[in-house]
Amino acid sequence: MKATAKRTLTPRAIVLGTAAAVALIGGTGAANAFADDDGPAPKSSVQLAPTEHHLDDTAQDRAQVKADKVSYDKATAKALKAVPGTATSAELDTADRNGSLIWEVDVFGKDHKNHDLTIDAGNGTALNKHTDRDDDAAETQTLLKGDKIGHGKATDQALKAVPGTVTSFSLDDNDRKGAAVYEVDVLGKDHKNHDVTVDAAGGKVLNQHVDQDDNDGDDD
Predict the structure, then answer these.
(1) Phi-psi bin for 99: left (phi > 0), alpha (psi -120 to 50), beta?
(2) Which candidate, 86, 75, 21, places its Cα nearest to that of 44?
(3) What's the Cα-to-Cα distance from 65 to each of 28, 126, 183, rounded to whole Å?
(4) What pLDDT, on the 0 to 100 scale, is given for residue 56?
(5) Contacts of 51 (CB under 8 A, 6+ apart)
(6) Cβ atoms of residues 40 and 80 within 8 Å
């Protein structure tokens, strides 16, 4: 299970005006602006080659992990600095259309709202911030009440079960029991994708399996 739906986040017109002003002063324009709605994909300091956009999931994760300069925990820390609260998911991904390598981090803020942040996978810069308008804050709060370990211990437990590199984590509910769990994706040292489910109440690894994906590169 992937940590979060793929989003493209950027400023609206009023924020773009501010971004343009920043650019005139020598800033990075939209890269430093924060958004409330979806828009053009952000551009990070790390770009994947076009040929790497159409690999199967495992091969793409290998390419992304190789290019990534910011680990999941550092990306999450950057997101929490921008929006204090609790991280509920993070995913290493490429921004739609432009191949920019980013971390997409979801934070339930102290304002009791869900926030989506885009972190540059090359230097850890917060590229965009987006407040969910249609999210279910009550559902997130219910999950957090069942979470006794936090994402740090959950990912540690996943890495003990499958040594490798975390490419995503997500606080979710167990479909069969309804209890809160962490779904962690790990690119193992065996160069395979592993899905690891960790009990958010006690930290026990409930399930793990190797991702079986198809190569969709032949479609192009």
Answers:
(1) left
(2) 75
(3) 25, 19, 18
(4) 78
(5) none
(6) no
Q: Which residues pair with 103 in a beta bridge?
A: 92, 119
Instruction: Give per-residue pLDDT as tens, 87-119.
Output: 999 999 998 767 899 999 999 999 999 999 999
Q: What does the block give as tokens for 177?
A: 């029991």
Q: Which of 141, 142, 139, 153 is nearest to 199 (CA)?
A: 153
Look at residue 133 in the predicted model and tell me its pLDDT. Answer: 77
- Greater confidence (188 vs 136) lies with 188
Looking only at the bridges linking them, the beta strands covering 101-109 and 85-94 are antiparallel
3-class DSSP state of 144: helix
- Model confidence at 38: pLDDT above 70: no
Map residue 180 onto helix, strand or coil: strand
Distance CA 199, CA 212 (A): 23
Q: 96-108 b/e with 16+ CB inside 10 Å = b? A: eeebbbbbbbbbb
Q: What is the DSSP letter of 92?
A: E
